[in-house]
């Protein structure tokens, strides 16, 4: 029983800013011309939190990545206060002709007072997309989603992204049917999407912009 309680107390929930600490964004753009990218961390709670941050190539694997470092990597966030996590590029080689995507994790661990020793407190890990944007890329990131093309190939629809920017779908429907598993399209590449047999008509989609907002609807025929 004691082991179970200890396990529960150490439970980490992969949520995005649901309770306690608030993260100032759902994604972070690192401009190659800048010395760093900054993300605010706010604590509206009456308790303090220990904030830990790091960058991963794969958040599920937790493999870490030393292409970027966070500073401070660990700090105490007092009640009703705000601080920032700064992401710094270490200079390790990344493609210069397209964006690179990594993952920024921010973990908040609530403090425990003496009278809360038997209370369940859950740490929360927020995982955000981190986009490294090289200087001099062609086109505009705000209009990259408009450049997508869709081609029917048997029981699939192939979507192509000819731009050097990542495109994250907010929603996507083909022939009036919503696509449930929405991909994030890599730059200068494409992906095949399974669709029901006989699906035809128009494709409509919206994407998520640099600020976490939603773009206007775009439509195309297949």
From TrEMBL:
<dbReference type="InterPro" id="IPR018046">
    <property type="entry name" value="Pili_assmbl_chaperone_CS"/>
</dbReference>
<dbReference type="Pfam" id="PF02753">
    <property type="entry name" value="PapD_C"/>
</dbReference>
<dbReference type="InterPro" id="IPR050643">
    <property type="entry name" value="Periplasmic_pilus_chap"/>
</dbReference>
<feature type="signal peptide">
    <location>
        <begin position="1"/>
        <end position="19"/>
    </location>
</feature>
<keyword id="KW-0143">Chaperone</keyword>
<dbReference type="InterPro" id="IPR008962">
    <property type="entry name" value="PapD-like_sf"/>
</dbReference>
<keyword id="KW-0393">Immunoglobulin domain</keyword>
<protein>
    <submittedName>
        <fullName>Fimbrial assembly protein</fullName>
    </submittedName>
</protein>
<dbReference type="InterPro" id="IPR001829">
    <property type="entry name" value="Pili_assmbl_chaperone_bac"/>
</dbReference>
<dbReference type="GO" id="GO:0071555">
    <property type="term" value="P:cell wall organization"/>
</dbReference>
<feature type="domain" description="Pili assembly chaperone N-terminal">
    <location>
        <begin position="20"/>
        <end position="137"/>
    </location>
</feature>
<dbReference type="InterPro" id="IPR036316">
    <property type="entry name" value="Pili_assmbl_chap_C_dom_sf"/>
</dbReference>
<dbReference type="InterPro" id="IPR016147">
    <property type="entry name" value="Pili_assmbl_chaperone_N"/>
</dbReference>
<comment type="similarity">
    <text>Belongs to the periplasmic pilus chaperone family.</text>
</comment>
<dbReference type="Pfam" id="PF00345">
    <property type="entry name" value="PapD_N"/>
</dbReference>
<keyword id="KW-0732">Signal</keyword>
<keyword id="KW-1029">Fimbrium biogenesis</keyword>
<feature type="domain" description="Pili assembly chaperone C-terminal">
    <location>
        <begin position="159"/>
        <end position="215"/>
    </location>
</feature>
<dbReference type="InterPro" id="IPR013783">
    <property type="entry name" value="Ig-like_fold"/>
</dbReference>
<dbReference type="InterPro" id="IPR016148">
    <property type="entry name" value="Pili_assmbl_chaperone_C"/>
</dbReference>
<keyword id="KW-0574">Periplasm</keyword>
<dbReference type="GO" id="GO:0030288">
    <property type="term" value="C:outer membrane-bounded periplasmic space"/>
</dbReference>
């Amino acid at each position: 029983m004691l082991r179970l309680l200890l396990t529960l107390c150490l439970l980490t929930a992969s949520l995005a800013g649901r309770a306690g600490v608030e993260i100032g964004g759902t994604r972070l753009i690192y401009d190659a011309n800048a010395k760093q990218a900054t993300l605010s961390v706010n604590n509206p709670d009456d308790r303090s939190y220990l904030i830990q941050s790091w960058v991963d190539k794969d958040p599920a694997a937790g493999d870490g990545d030393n292409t970027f470092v966070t500073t401070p990597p660990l700090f105490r966030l007092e009640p009703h206060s705000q601080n920032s996590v700064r992401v710094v590029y270490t200079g390790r080689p990344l493609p210069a002709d397209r964006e690179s995507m990594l993952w920024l994790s921010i973990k908040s661990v609530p403090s425990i007072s003496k009278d809360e020793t038997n209370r369940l407190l859950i740490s929360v890990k927020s995982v955000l997309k981190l986009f490294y944007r090289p200087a001099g890329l062609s086109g505009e990131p705000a209009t990259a989603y408009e450049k997508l093309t869709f081609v029917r190939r048997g029981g699939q629809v192939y979507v192509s992204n000819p731009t050097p920017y990542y495109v994250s779908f907010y929603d996507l429907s083909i022939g009036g049917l919503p696509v449930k598993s929405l991909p994030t399209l890599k730059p200068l590449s494409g992906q095949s999407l399974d669709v029901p047999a006989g699906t035809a008509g128009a494709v409509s989609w919206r994407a998520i912009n640099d600020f976490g907002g939603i773009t206007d609807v775009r439509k195309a025929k297949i």
